[in-house]
Amino acid sequence: MRILLVEDEKRMASFIKRGLTEQRYTVDLAYDGEEGLFLAETNPYDLIILDVMLPKADGITVCRELREKNIDVPILMLTAKDDVRDKIVGLDSGADDYLTKPFAFDEFLARVRVLLRRQRTDKSTTLKVADLELDQLTHKVTRAGREIELTATEYALLEYLMLNANQVVTRTMISEHVWDQDFDSFSNVINVYVNYVRKKVDTGFSKKLIQSVRGAGYIMKESAS
Ligand code: CA
To answer: What's the predicted TM-score (pTM) here?
Structure first.
């Protein structure tokens, strides 16, 4: 899950980014409204966290412009002001939820999870493909009931493959959703990580869940064909 955080206060931004990264989200940072708008228009994010008071373009303007361009990614707005009018303006501009600073980080994470889940028709936090299960809350992954240990990157990759089960995902899609903006997409890092994950998930099982699609990318599916 890739998140864009638009926050001009550097300490706040790095605090939030660190907390989200610990929860295994991929986070891109923008420090002003213009940069945030640019990144949101050029990358497919799963969620945008948008501060209201920003240099160059404020959060309300950014939110309105994104909605006018039919970019319907969930938006969580942050503001220092606890003012009902601000909240109404924020929600009217197209934000999905609103949080006043300072906030408890646990509450912030809970709202992030709700917004990420809202996009999916299945509201459960457990993803399942055949006998492989991934719990998005606890990050526990099991196959046939046996726990699989994954690094943060391996987990993010597996989660993305499972969210898109039964569809081909290209290397570009993987690089856009699993890695952050500093990632060099011309490297063979994706192949390397897919192989790590495949080893951990499929070794010892006759049913291989992760398959390569020649010239296209990868597919995760229940039945080999
Ligand atoms: Ca601010």
So the answer is: 0.75
